[in-house]
Amino acid sequence: MSDAFDVVVIGSGPGGYVAAIRAAQLGLNVACIEKRETLGGTCLNVGCMPSKALLHASHLYHEAGHDFEKFGLSVKGLSVDIGKMLASKDETVKSLTGGIEFLFKKNKIEWIKGAGKFTGKDTIEVALNDGGSRTVTAKNTIIATGSDVASLPGVEIDEKIVVSSTGALDLNPAPKSMVVIGGGVIGLELGSVWGRLGADITVVEFMDQVLPGMDMEVRKTFGRMMKKQGMTLKLSNKVTAVENNGKSAKVTFEPVKGGDSTTIEADVVLVAVGRHPYTYGLGLETIGVEMDERSRIKIGADFSTNVAGVWAIGDVVEGPMLAHKAEDEGVACAENIAGLNGSVNHAVIPGVVYTAPEVATVGKSEEDLKADGTAYNVGKFPFTANSRSKANQATEGFVKILADKETDRILGVHIIGADAGNMIAQAATAMEFGASAEDIALTCHAHPTETEAMKEAALAVHKRTIHM
Description:
single chain; 25% strand; globular; 3 domains; Enolase-like, domain 1; FAD/NAD(P)-binding domain; five-stranded parallel beta sheet; five-stranded mixed β-barrel; alpha/beta
């Protein structure tokens, strides 16, 4: 067994495993260092995929209990078996991670099971999971170690009462009450899961609206929807203490601008205040890799670091911490190593919140455009006027298109709706090709589908909607 490789990838998350596969496809000798017992990183093991499995299952349960009647469907004796739901989620994870292992074997990628650390710019020492160590050399190394959960000062996560997103995937029995610290994507998704299963959910968010960073109209509208679903939102508040007594926890918070503090007790507290890049313990200081003030690795446009032969992608570099962003960077980085011209258009990276309804966005928000001084037109169309949405009795939300006032080029698309996560792909494709709002307006859309709302929003940019 050789210890010398053309490419060594550290980390097997969406960025890492995709980079390894693409490099192998290009004829390079590849190894991937991963310390988990399964491949796929946070996303497949304790992130994107298990959370979506729970979101889907809990949504079906909620629909059966609340929405079936309006279609003339009656369900008697509806109940939920949390154990089976969690087992189903685990089976999904097992299938997906096993699939990556199959792809590694298919592409002749060696999986080195352990934790890697640079001892030189082309030398990595691996502390093997089975004991001992192994030193490998690489002409090129891709750092794809992803990110880890962030916490608050003084708040200890025990993954039982005070949990991170990881612990929130395995709560059994289901909590009757939960405080979610952080009104971002992770907090709202996992809060939705347990809220549908009967928990009283209180979200404490530092900012004045949920979903920080998204279009303000989307944020305000979505916040109202979450309240309608039963969530209690404590906006513009900061958590000052979390007291865990082993059976429940008390959360104390106060207004950001000052005022009296409030303390509430809950069965479970979910800390969802973001993630930080996993760049520690890798020996980066040993080889002199440059970092920014947020412990992210500085890279060039080709994903190279300041150290020759060392590259970085995904959550450890600047940009949204999204699996699909990491995947595209993994492909581009591998292609650059192979002498091709790999690139990623970071202006067109969609983001999705997988609640019900879903939220999906790509490109600039209205606030971004105003800050840039860009003149723009807005086209908006509600799902209440969409025939398929009416038939499905899922009419919450809208499609909103922002287009350059002079050129009509699409600058941003924002959707709240039942199928927003799938619909945003059309917007991303259009923007990648530099399409105008008129291009979408002139494209024939199948009837009846929710995507017709995209066409109507494009027509609305020029104030000529048909169905509103």
